[in-house]
Design brief:
- With 471 residues, this protein is an alpha+beta fold.
- Helix content is 23%, strand content 24%.
- The strands form 3 sheets. Strands 1, 2, 3, 4, 5, 6, 7, 8, 9 and 13 form a 10-stranded mixed beta sheet that branches. A 6-stranded mixed beta sheet has the order 10-16-17-19-18-14.
Length: 471
């Protein structure tokens, strides 16, 4: 990528064909906000994605936003992407499906970064961050929506910052627009600490974002990211964890119905040398219940298979929102991150398993209490979907419809998809036994939990076990 300044005369008479309508529509919304910045600093892909370049976003514009004193909003830099929506309408990047639906993926990314004292030009590192997110979307065809979270596991600016993950929300100033190629909304990236990401996983992203809006140093009304922020919202206000988050989980449950992680399950009912005995699994997001439609989606994906991204451009992402209009030709983020995301496999009869052994890495293991307390105790389900393999495992409660695991046969596999049905009584027992999983001290690994009467075993293992599948 290289920095350029766009030609403000591109709209002049006779040059309109050189200024694509989709691009012009987004520029129009930017000019509404920044009428005095017609020529903003911009980062552009030197070789466009549609010419074989690595960067899906053609441009990222960077504006200086003066904030709003009435709302106690501080001055900051405002970044806007161009390329997730259809800029050209000629099928060079996105399939044109008409003006009534979403344009391209239906959204562009924005980011608000606190302007440091004495800073005269915007840092350009957010452009690469946005390109990384865009690569994920293009390669997986999974889209984002407000409330989603991104586990990044690294300071967003490659510094020593505690801001190492992201939430997404509607941009507070940019309005959805209608272009000749469809509608475009603007999703803002919000940098968060690990503790805030975990709270959003355990409860929901929208709830954490609302808490951050009420704390100026954590983002304030416009959710401005401050990479120098050294305290989480729970350190700033210790009452938030118990009074808002814990109470929210208790009364509402968790909106997170899955995540991506390193996991393996073994069918202990089969001989050890059975090749189908062990299956890699991971976490995905699902609707609130497995209806007939959901089950059919899973069966359809078993027929079609799933393309896995060999280039790790982005750490795992989990989606939370359940309803979001998207083009029918795109994989919906909800569907593609659900237990429907399974590799090609012949449809086979459902088989009941007598005993299973689940193996999780540290990160996915710490989410087991969330799965049990925030999902199953509220009559919901939770799915793990593999980043290292091709299978899925879904925990279901007795209130979930459409499950093929039953109280009589609580462990059932349909091809590479495993379901485990847990009764409320067993969930309560497991919560008591797994209470220590909140600790992130890998020196205490491996950890073993076993319920012989239920013929269930769970192991929490170091990442190295999953990084080397021969172990």
């Amino acid at each position: 990528m290289d920095e350029i300044r766009p030609n403000s005369g591109a709209q002049a008479h006779g040059l309109v064909p050189l200024f694509p309508p989709g691009l012009q529509a987004i520029y129009g919304e930017c000019r509404r906000l920044y009428p005095d910045q017609a020529n903003p600093l911009q980062v552009t892909a030197i070789v466009k994605y549609w010419l074989g370049g690595p960067d899906p976003l053609d441009y990222i514009s960077m504006y200086r936003n003066m904030g709003c004193s009435d709302q106690d909003v501080q001055e900051h830099w405002h970044y806007v992407s161009f390329g997730l929506s259809d800029l050209y309408g000629d099928n060079r990047v996105h399939e044109f499906t008409g003006a009534d639906g979403p344009s391209g993926f239906g959204f562009e990314l924005t980011f608000r970064l606190k302007r440091e004292v004495g800073e005269t030009a915007p840092p350009t590192w957010p452009a690469e961050l946005m390109q990384g997110l865009a690569r994920y979307v293009f390669q997986s065809e999974n889209t984002f929506c407000s409330g989603d979270h991104v586990s990044w596991h690294s300071p967003l600016d490659n510094s020593e910052s505690r801001i190492q993950h992201m939430l997404l929300t509607e941009d507070p100033q940019m309005h959805p627009i209608q272009t000749p190629f469809g509608t475009v909304s603007f999703l803002q990236i919000v940098g968060v600490c690990a503790e805030e990401l975990q709270a959003s996983q355990q409860w929901n992203g929208q709830g954490i974002l609302e808490l951050m809006r009420g704390i100026r140093v954590a983002g304030g009304p416009w959710l401005i990211t401050d990479m120098r922020r050294g305290e989480t919202i729970f350190e700033i206000d210790p009452h938030l964890q118990q009074e808002r988050v814990d109470q929210g989980i208790e009364t509402e449950g968790s909106n997170l119905s899955g995540v991506s992680a390193k996991c393996v399950w073994d069918d202990l009912s089969r001989p050890p040398d059975d090749e189908e005995d062990s299956r890699s699994i991971c976490i995905g997001s699902q609707p609130r219940r497995l209806s007939n439609k959901d089950t059919e989606q899973i069966r359809e994906t078993l027929r079609k298979g799933l393309e896995f991204n060999s280039k790790a451009a982005l750490p795992p992402i989990s989606s939370q929102k359940q309803n979001h209009d998207r083009a029918q030709s795109r994989k919906d983020s909800l569907e593609s991150e659900s237990s429907a995301a399974i590799v090609p496999h012949e449809l086979v009869r459902t088989r009941q398993l007598e005993s299973v052994h689940l193996k999780f890495n540290q990160e996915s293991g710490t989410l087991l209490p969330l799965c049990l307390r925030g999902r199953l105790l509220h009559g919901r389900h939770f799915t793990y979907k593999s980043i290292n393999g091709d299978t899925a495992i879904t925990f279901v409660s007795t209130g979930v419809e459409g499950a093929f695991a039953t109280e009589e046969h609580p462990y059932a596999a349909h091809g590479p998809w495993l379901q485990i049905l847990l009764t409320e009584e067993f969930v309560e027992q497991m919560l008591g036994d797994l209470h220590e999983l909140g600790s992130h001290d890998e020196s205490k690994l491996p950890k073993e939990y076993s319920w012989p009467e239920k013929k269930l075993k769970i192991s929490i293992l170091p990442d190295s076990v999953f990084d080397n599948p021969l172990q």
